Amino acid sequence: xxxxxxxxxxxxxxxxxxxxxxxxxxxxxxxxxxxxxxxxxxxxxxxxxxxxxxxxxxxxxxxxxxxxxxxxxxxxxxxxxxxxxxxxxxxxxxxxxxxxxxxxxxxxxxxxxxxxxxxxxxxxxxxxxxxxxxxxxxxxxxxxxxxxxxxxxxxxxxxxxxxxxxxxxxxxxxxxxxxxxxxxxxxxxxxxxxxxxxxxxxxxxxxxxxxxxxxxxxxxxxxxxxxxxxxx
Length: 232
Ligand code: C5P
Prior knowledge:
eight-stranded parallel barrel, TIM Barrel, 11 helices, alpha/beta
């Protein structure tokens, strides 16, 4: 099992990102590039962060018709990142098409994850706005099951749901979990949150940590704290 901490580099441009990463002189953290940074800088930012020796989770959360997602995934697979993702709500057909698009001629491909319910979505909003009835855990487990049936490697979910997902889909099925806060930290827009230590207890494989590290007075110390609590 390769439990690891992934830093969400939610910066608006390359300069801020490199200034942030330059602070890490002893370790090469696993980095998440999301929509903000990718839309601002394009593939060049992926190549540069890769060149600097970081593993990359490209978090673009694709959600469109199967043919479009398949073709987009074929393009993303040429970026040689470690992980990419999509929204499970796009249906099993979309996930299967994505997997097809992502698989290179030699059969290799990045890890493909499905976002279940965003960790900012509360059960109340899921009922009232998305018109999905039942509990959020039922929805997450159902989406995880669909992702597994489509051949994906795992899901993005709250650490609170990691155990249930593993119980339904098997312990090899990855759970990558944002919604991480230190015990004394601000939740911000996140709702279904835990500490790094609780995420470990609940069986997460990877935690995705943004503001608790990027906005910390000492980001390297905050990262090391996460590694200590979650990995070691
Ligand atoms: O700053 P914070 O720790 O809340 O950042 C969490 C990161 O994880 C953000 O980049 C967000 O886009 C991402 N994410 C999430 N919930 C999901 C999927 C991704 O918060 N379900």
